[in-house]
Every structure is written in C-alpha cells, then in structure tokens.
Amino acid sequence: MKYYIGIDLGGTNIAAGLVGEDGTLFTRLSVPTKSGRSAGEIVQDMAELAKKAAKEGNIAWEEIEAVGLGVPGTANKETGMVEYANNLGFYDEPVVSMMEKALPGKKIRFDNDANAAAWGEYIAGSGKGVSSMLAVTLGTGVGGGIILDGKLFEGINYAAGEFGHFTIDRNGIPCNCGRKGCFEAYASATALISQTKEAMLENTQSILWELCGGEIERVEGKTLFDGVRRQDGTALKVFDRYIEYLAAGLLDLINIFQPELICIGGGISKAGDLLLEPLKRVIDQGDYARTSKRRTRIVPAVLDNDAGLIGAALLD
Ligand SMILES: [Zn+2]
Description:
Layout: E1 3-9, E2 13-20, E3 25-32, H1 39-56, E4 64-71, E5 74-76, E6 81-85, E7 90-93, H2 95-102, E8 107-112, H3 113-124, E9 133-138, E10 142-148, E11 151-153, H4 184-187, H5 189-202, H6 207-211, H7 221-229, H8 233-257, E12 261-265, H9 273-286, E13 297-300, H10 307-313
Parallel strand pairs: 1-4, 4-8, 9-12, 12-13
Antiparallel strand pairs: 1-2, 2-3, 5-6, 6-7, 9-10, 10-11
Helix pairs in contact: 1-2, 3-10, 5-8, 7-8, 8-9
The structure holds zinc ion.
Zinc ion (ZN) binds next to loops.
C-alpha cells in the first residue's frame, strides 16, 4: 500500500489525514485555521499537522509518497499560487513552494477545495468505478466539480464546476455574483432556509413554527424536512417548489454533460431519500435522454467532510 497525506485548508479549520492509495482514510486531525494570519504561519501549521497525521497512523514520514492540498479560492495549478482566497485573506500566495520548503523532498499536489472534494468522491466514494460524474454540493452556496473520462475538468482558471451560477430565471432573485436568477439563489441550503422562513411568515399556523421553537432565526434546512415528514401543508409546498428548482438546474447539467452519475453532497443531502426520490421522479420526466437505456444516476455523496481530504491526498 502507498500512503499519502491529504490536507483540507478551510476558513475555520485545517484538517489533515493519512490516506491509502485506495482512498482509505486512516487518521484525521484538525486544528483551527485562525484565519487572518500570514500564509507562512498557516503553511507551518499544515506541515506540522501532515507529519502528525502520518505519525498517528504509524507510517514513517519517509514512506509518504506525496502531500495534497485542497484550498478555498483560486488555486493556480501551473504556478502553485493561491491567487485569491477570500476567507483566508490570501492574495497571490505561493503556497506550493512554501509547502515544499516546509516539507523538503515531498511532492506537493494542489487544487481548490471543491475540485479536491469532487475527486475524493470520484476515487473513493459514490463515484467509484464510473468514468464521468458531477459532484454537486448544496450548502451555503452551490458548488461542485466535473469529472469527465476519469479526469477533473477544470477550465482555464482551474475553477470550472461553479454550478451555483448558471441562470434558471433570467429575471429572478439577485445573486451574490451580481447576476439574477442563479441556481444557487434557489437551490442552496441558504435559499431553502429563506424560502422556508418566507412561507412561515405567511402561515402562522404551520408546524414549522413548532419545529423551530417559535423562533424563526432557528430555522435550518432540517426544519423544513422535519415539517415534510409531519406532512405539514406549508412545508410540503416549500418542499415541492424546492424540488422543482433543484431538478431544473440538475436537468440542465444532465442534458449538457450526460454524466454517468451526479452525486449530491452538502447539508441538504442528509435528507436522503426524502429529497432524492421526489427529485429523481421530476428529473426522470424531464431528462432529454429519458427514452434511452442508460440514464444518469442521482446518488448521495458518501464521504461527507472527508471527501476534500481524501481527494487532495490522491490528486494527480
Ligand atoms: Zn450567481
């Protein structure tokens, strides 16, 4: 077995893990990022955590083949620079060469966190064995990654797969990106929560109020799904519309890419079949290839927060 270290650099935490060549995660450690610090300090912490992750898994440092790094923001794989990472305050930081200095002799691999997570799901999670897949993450925003013919498709800025920002309603809700009606503005967890709150304000008798203890600020994605389980009329209405939004975006992706598989990750995907079954029904009717024998499968992501680590460790 060959061993690798994967590092997931986030705005809140740095996680590092010892990963086998088959994608098995043996150890997982994390420390607070304390973002706002210099890139040098953060690199030092990442290097130390990488060594600890190997040690904790009883693998000598010399046996580690490579260290892979997933970073939030724009990761230029050609130059090894993090060109911009909003939540770390990084501008043009040569993170790869800094890591090479901190860990002499180790190969350093590098990508943005969304691509690393998609790659992890592909190599070791829900995408094992397929040749093409899309990873779609429904979280604060909507993100993802594209794997075509066994390779990450990354575009000129290594940032392809921004699934949050294609238009599903040209005159729709303003999006953070400056346009209107982006998929993210309808299908992210953030969007679902605001759709839920809006409906609650119009329906003061809804069970959703009870489910959030009467405090609307406490509404989360789960609140809506709990309401659906209780067959609350308001919850069901919000839910059906959310499924329509989600299906609209996913159908576009299916028609464009015809992937073997789409895996859905992020907090919302925890709703499991409650979400996926009705979603699949709507997609089934709209898929341009609906008369074909081979159809895109929609599945939940399986690696959760470890996808980024595992994917980073096994980057090409
Ligand atoms: Zn947008």
